[in-house]
């Protein structure tokens, strides 16, 4: 199992674990909500019975104190209406909106509309409980859930939202720190590699010059190819040395840059693989040629490795005038990529080869996006038929709209 698969599996397990915790929290809170709701219902029924008895024995002083004590200790918001639907008493409402000083005729904290709004809320939550009123008609007592019960009902969702926000913040912070650490590792390894390659390359150049002079092999084609490979090593060293530094981008014809690299690359690839470059041969873009050759090399190597026997690799260059962009499509007739792996192929460590490190496409994506401000993605792929990668670069030519 490659590192990317392990990371994805751990993410899946953590997600399942978080869902289990969230679900348990919701169900546990719901248990207390229902228990508290039952207790409030019992409390309300007691209030109804006491109120009903107080209406029957309203002139009996023996029960007055007991009835008042029970009703005052009821914390539920309650409203009682008469037979005509008019509010005639209430309990547990907001005192800042129900206070009316009869002697001073002070109405500053009295809000008549508040009673109507509260009554509508109560009717939506619970049906009214009928009792026999003083006039012999059917009166109704309405109530709504207490403030604590209402808060408790929403608490688990608020709790989950806070936990999710905390986890998201922590994930972003740790991902940013990890990405910064990975960048430092990339830069350190790249510069160390460039440093280590410097000495043997210089030695190889000296040995080639010695062979040419000792064996009079100035025009020997084998020596010429050795020189080409040494120059290639110099280019690779230069690539590694540029990692972590801001590369210099220059205006180049995209077709020429890619064509020059293909001429070098196809000599070192099986002759059963046919290379073709098509499209616009004049379109220009800002490129760092050593780094962009690295991109081309990684994509062409992957394409060649995907072709088991005979096949073809096509590079098509398209200019999108409206967006002032350059599209570079690299297609092969290899074994293809499953659609579910379109994003995974760019992850460090992802590879389908037994001896692969899974760093080529990850590095390619960094070079295209971080150094050339472009995009790269799998445009299309079908298992058994082939794959097309697309690179999008900004054109270095600005087109002015023509006036008619």
Automatic annotation (TrEMBL):
It comes from the Bacteria. Its EC number is 2.7.13.3. Keywords: ATP-binding, Kinase, Membrane, Nucleotide-binding, Phosphoprotein, Transferase, Transmembrane, Transmembrane helix, Two-component regulatory system. The keyword Nuclease does not apply. It catalyses: ATP + protein L-histidine = ADP + protein N-phospho-L-histidine. CDD domains: HisKA (cd00082). The chain crosses the membrane at residues 12-33, 154-174. Residues 192-397 form the Histidine kinase domain. Gene3D superfamilies: Histidine kinase-like ATPase, C-terminal domain. PROSITE patterns: HIS_KIN (PS50109). InterPro entries: HATPase_C_sf, HATPase_dom, His_kinase_dom, HisK_dim/P_dom, Sig_transdc_His_kin-like_C. It is an enzyme of class 2 (transferase). GO terms for molecular function: ATP binding; phosphorelay sensor kinase activity. PANTHER family: PEROXIDE STRESS-ACTIVATED HISTIDINE KINASE MAK3, SENSOR HISTIDINE KINASE. This is histidine kinase. It comes from Pedobacter hartonius.
């Amino acid at each position: 199992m490659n590192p990317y698969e392990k990371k994805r599996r751990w993410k899946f397990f953590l997600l399942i674990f978080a869902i289990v915790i969230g679900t348990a929290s919701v169900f546990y809170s719901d248990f207390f909500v229902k228990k508290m709701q039952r207790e409030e219902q019992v409390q309300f029924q007691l209030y109804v019975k006491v109120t009903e008895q107080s209406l029957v024995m309203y002139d009996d002083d023996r029960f007055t104190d007991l009835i008042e004590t029970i009703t005052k200790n009821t914390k539920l918001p309650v409203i009682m209406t008469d037979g005509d639907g008019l509010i005639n008493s209430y309990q547990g409402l907001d005192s800042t909106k129900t206070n009316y000083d009869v002697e001073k005729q002070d109405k500053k904290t009295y809000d008549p509309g508040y009673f109507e709004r509260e009554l509508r809320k109560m009717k939506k939550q619970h049906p009214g409980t009928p009792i026999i009123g003083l006039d012999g008609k059917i009166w109704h007592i309405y109530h709504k859930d207490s403030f604590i019960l209402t808060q408790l009902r929403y608490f688990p969702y608020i709790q989950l939202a806070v936990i999710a926000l905390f986890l998201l913040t922590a994930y972003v912070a740790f991902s940013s720190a990890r990405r910064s650490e990975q960048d430092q590792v990339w830069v350190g390894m790249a510069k160390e590699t460039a440093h280590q390659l410097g000495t043997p390359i210089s030695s190889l150049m000296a040995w080639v010059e010695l062979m040419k002079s000792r064996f009079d092999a100035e025009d020997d084609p084998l020596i010429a190819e050795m020189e080409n490979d040494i120059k290639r090593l110099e280019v690779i060293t230069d690539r590694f040395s540029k990692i972590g530094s801001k590369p210099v981008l220059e205006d180049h014809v995209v077709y020429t840059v890619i064509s020059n690299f293909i001429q070098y690359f196809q000599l070192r690839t099986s002759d059963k693989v046919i290379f073709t470059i098509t499209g616009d041969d004049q379109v220009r873009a800002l490129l760092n040629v050593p780094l962009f050759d690295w991109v081309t090399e990684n994509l062409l190597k992957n394409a060649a490795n995907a072709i088991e026997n005979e096949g073809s690799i096509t590079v098509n260059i398209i200019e999108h005038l409206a967006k002032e962009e350059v599209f570079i499509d690299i297609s092969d007739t290899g074994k293809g990529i499953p659609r579910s792996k379109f994003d995974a192929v760019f992850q460090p460590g992802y590879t389908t080869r037994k001896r692969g490190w899974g760093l080529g496409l990850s590095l390619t994506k960094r070079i295209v996006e971080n150094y050339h401000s472009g995009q790269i993605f799998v445009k299309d792929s079908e298992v058994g038929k082939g794959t097309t990668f697309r690179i999008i670069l900004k054109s270095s030519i600005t087109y002015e709209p023509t006036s008619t």
